[in-house]
Every structure is written in C-alpha cells, then in structure tokens.
Amino acid sequence: MSAQYSFSPQFMLLSNITQFSPMFYLSSFPGLEAIKHWIFIPFFFMYMVAISGNCFILIIIKTNPRLHTPMYSLLSLLALTDLGLSVSTLPTTMGIFWFNSHSIYFGACQIQMFCIHSFSFMESSVLLIMSFDRFVAICHPLRYSVIVTGQRMVRAGLIVIFRGPVATIPIVLLLKAFPYCGSVVLFHSFCLHQEVIQLACTDTTFNNLYGLMVVVFTVMLDLVLIALSYGFILHTVAALASPEEQRRAFQTCTAHLCAVLVFFVPMVGLSLVHRFGKHAPPAIHLLMANVYLFVPPMLNPIIYSIKTKEIRRAIIKFLGLIEVSSEF
According to its record, how does it sit in the membrane (predicted)? Predict the structure, then answer.
C-alpha cells in the first residue's frame, strides 16, 4: 500500500522503528501532499463555522431569558460538546497544515484520543436526553413541567459529563502498556483508539472487547433508545386529530432528528469501516473519520438556527441590537 504514496523521510524513519516509540507520525492525507494547501480551505471553513456557530448559539441562549428552559439548556450542552470535539482535533490538524508538523508524542496522542472519544460519547448522551425531552413534551405535554425539572436536568447533565470520560479512561491508559513495532504511522490528522490499537504488536483482545462493549452500551444503546422515543412520538403524532396539529407537533422534533442523523450515520459508518473494512482504501477511512468528527459540530448550529423558531427570533433580535448599537 505504501508504494502508491510518497511519504517524507521522517515517515520512513518512523516506519523502521521495531520497538516501542514515544512518538507517532500523523500522515493525515497520504498521497495528497501536492494539494494540501487546497485541502486546508474546507477544513479551515469547517473549523470556523463549528467554533463560531456553537459560540454564537451559546451567546444567544445565555443573553435571552426566554430561552432559559430545559430544552435550550440541553442545546447549550450540545453546543459545548461540539466545541470540545472541534477543539480536540484542532491542534494536530492545523499543525499539519500550518507548520507541517506530523509528529505527536504518545502522551499527547493519548490525551487527544481521550478527548475525542469522551466528547463523542457525551454528544451521544446529550442527543438521547434531548430525545427524552421531546418525547415528554409531545406525549405528555401536561406533565412536562413536573417530569422535566431543573434538578433532574442537573442530574442528567452530570451523567452526560462523566459517562464518556469514565468509559474512555481504561482503554486509553492501557495503550501505554503495549509495545508498538513496525510502522507507527497513523493515517489521520488526529489520534483514534481504533487506529492506534492496530499498531500494537501484542495481544489486544481486552482492549478490543472492552472498546466494543463501550460502544454497544453507550452509543448503540443510546441509538436504540432514541429510536424508541421517536417510535412513541410518531404514534402520538399519528393519533392527533388534524394534519395541522400533526405538522406542528413533529416540527418541534425536526432539528433534533437532523442532529441525530448527522451524528449517528457517520459514526456507524466509521465503526463499520474500522471493523470490517481493513482492506478498504485508506481514503475511505480518512473520509469517514473526517466526516464523523468535523461535520456534526459544523452542521448542528446551522440546523438549530434554521429549524428552531425561537433561535431564529433570538438571532434576529441579537443582530438587530448589534446594528442599533453600531449606529451610536
């Protein structure tokens, strides 16, 4: 496979290491080095939209008292998670583009993969809680204020914050105990556990099984529960008397449903590629990983700005205040 790509001398040096190395080489875009400056443009655009868009959502919710409700508290948590996911990949990706810095110390790689996987699990948890919020709002509207209380929201937020890191810590720490031989090259611009574990030249059965269990009992379980929530929502909406009521009821879920699809479809695709596509071209792995990590944080603020009426009104009001203040 390496014959079709042209790597730097640093890559060749690292590829010949036959014992544990404290550094990895992030090849990022093998075979596309000649057009790397063009690839930088969409990545820079995605980072700008993701970081500025999610910050803007947080500012809008913070400065508008009408949005201080459980639904928008969850949206704030989603925006914070998307920010964390974007910032986790920013140092190495921009380091490759700006400074041609491909090497990463093993400890830094561990920290980065811990952040990436933790924020991914956190986003899955937030989307699950948001689906429960929509389920209660549509299926039990008269009991919404009783069921969805501030205290329960705090508890749910704490579960979201701690579930991902607690599940990720063991597999990340265990990587330190493995010897790494042969090629220590990663084909992404960031560290992912499922790629680093393949470089270990020892038995990694525990890490593989534990990682699979974590995915099944977090992401996959969340996806099943979200699907069940929408099953109950669709049943309730179908029982409404008029088509107008059905449309209005389901409109409240449109933004969340789009966010669920944008997050889970690339994640499932990436998992399938890593599990069953070992002989797939590296470009497929690169594409799926980049879509999974960069697209949801970029699209979520756009989706909620377009699909949520209250957010649209708050944005128009906020921009109006900026315009008025600039005139004085």
Answer: Multi-pass membrane protein
Q: Is the dihedral of CA 100, 104, 108, 113 positive or negative?
A: positive
Dmax (CA) for the chain in angstroms is 70
Spatial CB neighbours of 157, under 8 Å, sequence gap ≥ 6: 73, 77
- pLDDT, one tens digit per residue, over 69-124 is 888 999 999 999 999 999 999 999 888 888 888 899 999 999 999 999 999 999 99
What would the two tokens of residue 81 be? 């998670």
CB atoms within 10 A of CB 173: 11
DSSP string, 290-307: HHHHHHHHHHHHHHHHHH
Q: Comparing C-alpha atoms, which of 256, 311, 327, 252 is closest to residue 63?
A: 311
In 155-301, which ranges are E strands? 185-186
Higher per-residue pLDDT: 274 or 118: 118
β-strand pairing of 103-105 with 23-26? antiparallel
* Among 75-79, 234-238, 308-312, the least confident range: 308-312
Strand 185-186 relative to strand 103-105, pairing? unpaired
Question: What distance in Å separates the CA atoms of residue 256 and residue 296, rounded to the nearest whole number?
Answer: 12
* Overall residue count recorded for the chain in this entry: 328
pLDDT confidence bin for 32, thresholds 50/70/90: low
Query: Euclidean distance between the first and final Cα of the chain, in Å?
Result: 63
The residue written with tokens 């993701």 in the block is 50
SS3 204: coil
Residue 25, amino acid: Y
The 10 Å Cβ neighbour count of residue 304 is 24
Which phi and psi (to 5°) does residue 186 adopt?
A: -105, 135
* 170-218 residue pLDDT tens: 999 988 888 887 668 888 889 988 888 888 888 888 888 898 899 888 8
Residue pointed to by tokens 């924020």: 119
The residue assigned the tokens 């205040």 is 321
